[in-house]
Amino acid sequence: MSCCHHYYSLADGCDSAFSVDMSSITVGPGCLSEAGERLKTRGVARVAVFTDKRIKELDFFQRAMDSIARAGLDAVLYDGVQIEPTDASFREAARFAADARPDGYLSIGGGSVMDTCKAANLYATHPADFLAYVNAPVGEGRPVPGPLKAHIACPTTCGTGSECTGIAVFDLLEMKAKTGIASRHLRPSEALIDIWCTHTLPHNVLAASAFDVLSHAAESYTAIPYSARLAPLTASARPMSQGANPWSDMGCERALKIIGSYFERALADPADLEAREQMMWAATLAGIAFGNAGVHLPHGMSYAVAGLVGDYHVPDYPDDHAMVPHGMSVIVNAPAVFRFTASACPERHLEVARWLGADFGEVSVAEAGEVLAERLEQLMQKACFPGGLAAIGYAESDLDALTDGALPQQRLLCNAPLAVDRTILKELFRTALSYW
Ligand SMILES: [Fe+2]
């Protein structure tokens, strides 16, 4: 059994190059106070500020607003972002943006806030039917026709990496499934990564965000090599989910090592600010990596897990609607997936397990999937996370619906190191029902 990633060797008909795109980023405590000046430098005179009602009340949000006032900018506030957004909430945000006519955007929040801001900027700048830009086959998958207005994204959780990616994810209500919009034009112009924003994160938000980061890095590192994907017909047709490559490998390795050192510390002690700050840096590194490689099965399956949720609520999240937080809906699939994908590149799976702090000696490559899956299950238990889909409310009778919900996520499924069909996908969901 050999590892498909030892060399990014060229193959007939496959891609021979990879591209690196990323936002300009500024990292450091207090840098949110640079927002106003940075917007002004980009020629913004009227900024639409996107956030949610909880964050609007926090000190760091006011610091950003003060900086906008100091820069002499006109600001309009949108605080109606829905956590785990839907097509309805994206449309509402887009209507706001179209009416407000800003010439730039500032988003301050988690992935839901940044993704909603991306969508509002898109539809206000390039109006179209909502499904026009949504990934096929759910939507038309029409290319975004050109650049959007300037957008500075300011993450406030230790996760998502949305500030560095051209992806916006939402629930399509009529299909009860998550899907998204993906385009390089959606990537924010800049990111301000202010580690002071993470100091007030409650336990479950921190844990779900951290598992999202972990999975971004682990999936990107084990994705199909870019050199094994069919060559694009044109240069601009190379997908953002282009597969593992030497650039993304660097970010994944560093992010996973940081998570291995600091995740348990951050979980155990909310006052351990060094651990929280390191986790935020890991989120940035993983975001840059997966924005240029793409994730695969745990995320592809998560869309169905989150979209088909019954009556499930998690403390520390808004209680007005049932939801599975994104990071939880991802990590609950991960042990089943990595047991399956390990045979494609076992050395990479063992590296991920070692970087995450798994304690193992000499093992055979045949044990790689088990070693990584067990380490993930340990971390899930330490975070008091559900031990499988059954703990979230799913049963054997839901396996067909979950599989049907994940199958349309071809952008992600095709980025896996092994091909999957309906039968395999259903089996993965079955394995994910209960780990302990
Ligand atoms: Fe994610």
Characterization of this structure:
The chain has 436 residues and is an alpha/beta fold. Helix 2 links the parallel strand 2 and strand 3. The longest helix is centred in the middle third of the chain and has 23 residues, at 246-268. Helix 1 (35-41) runs parallel beside helix 2 (59-70) and helix 3 crosses helix 4. It has two domains: 24-199, Rossmann fold (3-Layer(aba) Sandwich); 201-431, Dehydroquinate synthase-like, alpha domain (Up-down Bundle), CATH 1.20.1090.10. It is built from 15 helices and eight strands. The strands form two sheets. Strands 1-8-5-4-2-3 form a six-stranded parallel beta sheet, with helices on both faces. The protein has helices at 35-41, 59-70, 87-100, 111-125, 203-222, 246-268, 273-291, 297-307, 326-331, 334-341, 346-355, 368-382, 399-406, 410-413, 422-431, and strands spanning 24-27, 46-50, 74-78, 104-109, 150-155, 167-172, 177-182, 190-193. Bound molecules: fe (ii) ion. Fe (ii) ion (FE2) binds at residues 160, 212, 216, 299, 326, 330. Fe (ii) ion binds at residues 160, 212, 216, 299, 326, 330.
Q: How would you name the oligomeric state of the polypeptide chains in this document?
A: single chain
**Name of the CATH superfamily of the largest domain:** Dehydroquinate synthase-like - alpha domain
Low-pLDDT residue spans: 1-5
Strand content: 5-15%
Radius of gyration: 20 Å
Mean pLDDT: 93
Order of helices and strands: EHEHEHEHEEEEHHHHHHHHHHH
Apparent shape: globular
Number of domains: 2
Structural class: alpha/beta
Strand order of the largest sheet: 1-8-5-4-2-3
Tally of DSSP helical segments: 15
Q: State the helicity in percent bands.
A: 40-55%
Distinct ligands, ions and cofactors found in the model: fe (ii) ion
CATH class of the largest domain: Mainly Alpha
Major sheet description? 6 strands, parallel
Count of β-strands: 8
